[in-house]
Design goal:
With 73 residues, the chain is mainly α. The chain has helices spanning 12-31, 33-39, 43-59.
Length: 73
């Protein structure tokens, strides 16, 4: 039985766009704008960007002797 007042979305593309926007907005709130943008890149571009971030951090003198706990490879 359908809920009273429920109408299926007539345009699934619009529903998908609204869903993707909601996910993006959540990522902005949770992680910030830069990481939210990176999260929506294709996988190869995302890995390249993260690699550049790590290289930049190491060039600036960030020490990486301790393992990153809670991070999956």
């Amino acid at each position: 039985m359908k809920r009273p007042g429920y109408q299926p979305n007539p345009n699934p593309r619009l529903a998908e766009r609204r869903f993707r926007r909601a996910v993006y907005d959540f990522h902005v709130r949770a992680f910030g704008e830069e990481i939210a943008r990176v999260n929506h890149l294709p996988l190869a571009a995302r890995r390249q960007y993260i690699g550049e971030m790590v290289d930049h951090a190491l060039a600036k003198g960030v020490k990486s002797r301790k393992p990153a706990l809670g991070v999956t490879p």
